[in-house]
UniProtKB/TrEMBL annotation:
One of the record's GO molecular function terms: kinase activity
Domain of life (superkingdom): Bacteria
Organism of this sequence: Microlunatus sagamiharensis
Keywords from the named record: Kinase, Transferase
Family the entry assigns: Belongs to the fructosamine kinase family.
Stored InterPro entries: Fructo-/Ketosamine-3-kinase, Kinase-like_dom_sf
Transmembrane spans: none
Protein name: Fructosamine-3-kinase
One Pfam family named in its UniProt record: Fructosamin_kin
Ranges where the record places region Disordered: 1-23
C-alpha cells in the first residue's frame, strides 16, 4: 500500500523514488527512519538499504528478484518474528529517529505512544479510517456501528494480551515482500510500535508466496499461543478500512463483515 518499491532488476545501481508536487515534505524522511529502525533489529528480517534521503526523493539499494522458495519463506517468517521481538518503546511509537506521524500509502497515519494495544489500535488505527470511509460513502452506517462496538471492546482491554510492543513493518502486503537470491527483503514500511500479528494479518489478507511456511515459522519463533489464527481478522480491520477510504465500498463491506465477528 505504500507505493511502488525498488525496481528489483539488478544490483549495483541505486533505485531512486521521486515524489510529486503533492508529496508531503516529510514523506521520504519517515520512510527512511522506518527502514533504518527495522534494519537495526538483531537477526531480523532483511531490509532494503537507504543510500540517501531528501525532500523530493529517497535513494535505495536496487534489488534483484528470485523465484520464491519454501526455505526463503520459512527463514523470513523466523526473521520477522525476531524483528518484532526487537520491540518498541510503546504501542504507537514512531521509529527511532523520527517524531510525529507517518503514512500508510499516501494516507496519514497517527503515531502517538500509548500504554495499551487495544486503546492504540482503536483510536489510531481503526476509528479514524472507519469514520473517513463512512464520510466518503464507502462504509455503511451499520458497518460503522459494528466497528465502533469493536473499538469499545478494544478500549476496554477485552482483546489485549501480555505481549509487549513489537517493532512492526506496518504495511506488509505482498508487494513489500521481495524474494531475492539472498532471501526475502522488505521495502516501503509504515513502521511503528504495534502488535506482531498485524504484520502477519496483512500477509494473510493480500497473500504472499509461501504464506503457510511463513506463518508456521513465525508462530514457532514467536511462541504464539494456540488459536492465534482466530485473531487475524481483528488485525485486518485496519488495512481493510484504509483501503475502504481509498479503494471503495467493497473493502468497507468486508470490514463490516469482519467487525461483526469481534463486536
Amino acid at each position: 500500500m505504500s507505493g511502488s518499491g525498488p525496481s528489483p532488476t539488478g544490483a549495483g545501481e541505486p533505485y531512486v523514488k521521486h515524489g510529486g508536487p503533492s508529496t508531503p515534505p516529510e514523506y521520504f524522511a519517515v520512510e527512511a527512519a522506518g527502514l533504518r529502525w527495522l534494519a537495526a533489529a538483531p537477526d531480523g528480517a532483511a531490509v532494503v538499504g537507504v543510500r540517501e534521503v531528501g525532500r523530493h526523493r529517497i535513494v535505495l539499494d536496487r534489488l534483484e528478484t528470485a523465484r520464491p522458495t519454501a526455505d526463503a519463506a520459512e527463514s523470513f517468517g523466523r526473521a520477522l518474528a525476531r524483528t518484532h521481538a526487537a520491540g518498541a518503546p510503546a504501542f504507537g511509537s514512531p521509529p527511532a529517529g523520527w517524531e510525529g506521524d507517518g503514512f500508510i500509502g499516501r494516507q496519514r497515519m497517527s503515531m502517538r505512544p500509548t500504554a495499551t494495544w487495544g486503546t492504540f489500535y482503536a483510536e489510531q488505527r481503526v476509528l479514524p479510517y472507519a469514520r473517513e470511509a463512512h464520510d466518503v460513502g464507502h462504509l455503511s452506517a451499520a458497518a460503522l456501528a459494528a466497528v465502533e462496538r469493536v473499538a469499545e471492546r478494544l478500549r476496554g482491554g477485552d482483546l489485549d494480551d501480555d505481549r509487549p510492543p513489537a517493532r512492526v513493518h506496518g504495511d506488509l502486503w505482498s508487494g513489500n515482500v521481495v524474494f531475492t537470491p539472498g532471501g526475502v527483503v522488505v521495502i516501503d514500511p509504515a513502521a511503528h510500535g504495534g502488535h506482531g500479528l498485524t504484520d502477519l494479518a496483512m500477509l494473510h489478507l493480500f497473500g504472499v508466496p509461501g504464506l503457510e511456511r511463513i506463518s508456521a515459522a513465525y508462530a514457532d519463533e514467536a511462541g504464539l499461543d494456540a488459536g492465534w489464527e482466530d485473531l487475524i481478522g481483528l488485525h485486518q480491520l485496519h488495512p481493510l478500512l484504509v483501503h475502504a477510504v481509498s479503494h471503495g465500498p467493497a473493502y468497507g463491506q468486508e470490514a463490516g463483515t469482519v467487525a461483526r465477528r469481534y463486536r
